Amino acid sequence: MKLDRRKTLGLLAAGIAATPFLAGCKVGGASAGADSRPRGEINLTADEWRQRLTPEQYRVLREAGTERPFSSSLNAEHRKGIFACAGCELPLYSSVTKYDSGTGWPSFWDHLPDAIRTRTDYELGLPRIEVYCRRCAGHLGHVFEDGPQPTGLRYCMNGVAMKFIPA
Fold first, then answer.
1. Which helix (H) or strand (E) holds 119?
2. Count of alpha carbons within 13 Å of 31, Cβ hemisphere only?
3. Rounded to whole angstroms, how far apart are CA atoms 81 and 156?
4. Given a cut of 70, is residue 88 above it in pLDDT?
5. What percent helix, strand, coil does the chain show, rounded to 5?
6. Number of C-alpha atoms within 13 angstroms, CB side, residue 119?
7. What is the largest CA-CA distance in the chain?
8. Rounded CA gap, 152 and 140, in Å?
9. What pLDDT does residue 41 have?
10. Contacts of 80 (CB under 8 A, 6+ apart)
């Protein structure tokens, strides 16, 4: 593609216009706005979290990363039980609300009472609703409004951020 002065100025203007959106983006798997991460009831140092979690759990729970789709064994978990936070073991979701969304991540149409908190994130430049653990503020995933009834919601969770406790 040949760049002339008009195309160069257009690209420059687009970059400047995108700057406010990119300010909240992740760089290298860590949130650029790490100070804006929510706080929970359990507040450990980064070293304490690293001792408690696997490297992948740390990347997802503490740095708001995302696991690869279809990589979690919890996708195929169909027994009765509870899905709890891998960081603090707070019960988050019941197997009764789990369903196969076809997205590659464990999905639920509702959460347990007082288990999660949400906030708007702009890491991709567009607003999304982030879901995090109420107790330890670990990043779990996002919630979307394209789920089944009765809620119409799809809590799309990172399996590595949870552990399954059979009933």
1. strand 116-121
2. 21
3. 18
4. yes
5. 25, 25, 45
6. 15
7. 66
8. 19
9. 86
10. 95, 96, 166, 167
Any idea where the domains of the chain sit in the sequence? 26-166
In the Cβ-directed half-sphere of 136, how many Cα atoms lie within 13 Å?
A: 26
pLDDT tens across 70-83, in order? 999 999 999 999 99
Q: From CA 158, how far away is CA 11, in angstroms rounded?
A: 35
Rounded to whole angstroms, the Cα distance separating 116 from 153 reads: 14
- Is residue 110 over pLDDT 50? yes
Return the active site residues.
Answer: 156
163 contact partners, CB below 8 Å, separation of at least 6: 83, 84, 85, 86, 89
Considering the segment(s) 26-166 as one domain, its CATH architecture is Beta Complex (2.170)
**For residue 39, what are the contacts with CB-CB under 8 A and spacing of at least 6?**
137
- The band of 36, judged by pLDDT with boundaries at 50, 70 and 90, is low
Distances (CA, A) of 71 to 1, 10, 50, 67: 38, 40, 21, 7
Where helices occur in the chain by DSSP H, the ranges are: 5-22, 46-52, 55-61
